[in-house]
Amino acid sequence: MGFWGYLLVGRAGDGALAECPVLATSRDRPVPARTFAGGWRLWERPGPPDPAGTDALVRALADATDAPALAAYVMESDCAVIGGARPGGPCWSACLGRTALARHMADTGLGLDELFPAPPVAAAHCAAWAAAAGRAADAAELARVLAAEPGPLVEDLFRDLLARLGMVERRLAGR
Fold first, then answer.
1. Least enclosed by CB within 10 Å: which of 14, 63, 67, 171?
2. 24 versus 68: which is more confidently predicted?
3. Are 165 and 82 in contact (CB under 8 A)?
């Protein structure tokens, strides 16, 4: 069985994340997983989805840290629901692993396209998020990542998304 839980990206120390209202009520505390340039961090929080939802989570994190925030709820390492927000801006959503997510949603009666924008539209939201975070991102590259199928773990695809958002250096093939 793969990972179930959140991957959170924001700019602030661990204290600001722990004080985030949506996370403060959870018994599952996020743990720092990686630090990026400019004070950006990645945290992991295993466990079930937050009852408030990904939009509320990224909104609260963006407001608490006064910086853009990104969250991915990973389901069994197969797929992920992505949410992003910047302070005072609207929330947006996307997904990784569209085929696997459609399987997870099969019992809901909702179609994937009813809830998540197509990769090119989602890529525009991601690129705007990157710009708000002070990073440069190419929407065409982001769209390719958002349309890709994970193999074997969606966490790898999320790391590729972070690289395309300018958070981490991309590795060159063969290195």
1. 171
2. 68
3. no
